[in-house]
């Protein structure tokens, strides 16, 4: 029978120990923010943890793309006090400390995802959901108390939490979280391409995003991505000596699908070699599958993981969290079938996912991907041509002396704001504005579209900009406007 405390699902880990370990996980993370409120989950976590700093036990907290987690280890009484203080802080966030904490958060320079992961999610989702991690928004100093209060009341409710406990359960837990129903989540539609694509940027690394089908009773999609990551790590770190960090991240998608990103950082001068290793690992595994030795290694890893704890309890936790993300229930692992998985089955999963691939290459290394059938793409969507509408161009002096400005042209239509530049034609529909960053001094105002495009507007850029800026104020709600983040050193 399922156990609940004040509406929070509780999972008890077996074992005999005198002290208590707890993990309180909420199904909310950085992907649930908006452009205007980027960083709100991390800021809320900091404010809450400030309220437990005096407890003489081990405590910690973390925000990633999908979850927010609070952990503690100590005596049952102290751990119980930790949980109750955390919950009270979420129910009534101490926002009077927000201005001071903004400086701490800025100094921390924390991130919910690696830059390659953030960029590829931005390419796929634009300025919404997982794609927000690539953007800065207003910065922590631009957040307002009402942003934190509204975020906490929506997401940090009992129905969106799971509490795991090892050791004695603290007595008389209050867990006074904000009251409210389980939050609903609308997953944003992702940008797709006609076959595998690759984008370039200046991060010294390489990586690839793949949309994988739901895991079944042998977890083939997860196994395939672990094999891919291991192959890339072997080639980039242990064979080539090009990388230190090789890792993976994922987010849940609709109907049990997942978007995985595997990436490898590159030391200076080895960016092309790392791209080559990632491309070759992906395409070879999709064609031939893993070697028997690779497959045997991963079978052994799964065996070690199963022996390290209660696999049914881990599955229960995964399904509890998955239900909060709208995922179907994952069936129990069929160990007999897993032991008989063949390389061709891994190859088939990767080959089926290959058309969804979005590769990442350091500037100048995309040709290696093109040779493997990847089409070069812009980091944000572009349309075929400028639509009819009122046109604006840079002043003549700019076109005479600044080569890049010669191709630039702005068009305002009844439906959208459009810019043509060297990368193509970018469009932000008036009803799809994610936010507007006000220009300071001579800096342009920047209009961010939910599709990932960003269009600058400034009087120094073209005649008539003042008229467009005035129209923008009328069209875009005031709560979507923000100032450029301050540099808090």
What report would you give on this structure?
The protein is of the alpha+beta class and 489 residues long. It has 3 domains: 3-113 and 133-166, Cytochrome Bc1 Complex, Chain A, domain 1; 197-376, Cytochrome Bc1 Complex, Chain A, domain 1, CATH 3.30.830; 390-483, PH-domain like. Helices cover 34% and strands 22% of the residues. It contains 14 helices and 20 strands. The strands form 4 sheets. A 6-stranded mixed sheet has the order 1-2-6-3-5-4, sandwiched between helices. A 6-stranded mixed sheet has the order 9-10-8-11-7-12, sandwiched between helices. It has a 4-stranded antiparallel sheet with strand order 13-14-15-16, with no helix packed on it. Helix 1 crosses helix 5. The chain starts with a strand and ends in a 6-residue tail after the last strand.
Q: Tell me, rounded to a whole number, the average pLDDT.
A: 94
CATH architecture of the largest domain: 2-Layer Sandwich
The general outline is: globular
Q: Which stretches are low in confidence, meaning pLDDT under 50 for 5 or more residues running?
A: none
Question: Major β-sheet, in short?
Answer: 6 strands, mixed
Q: Tally the helices: what do you get?
A: 14
Comma- or semicolon-separated keywords:
3 domains, PH-domain like, alpha+beta, globular, 6-stranded mixed beta sheet, Cytochrome Bc1 Complex, Chain A, domain 1, 489 residues
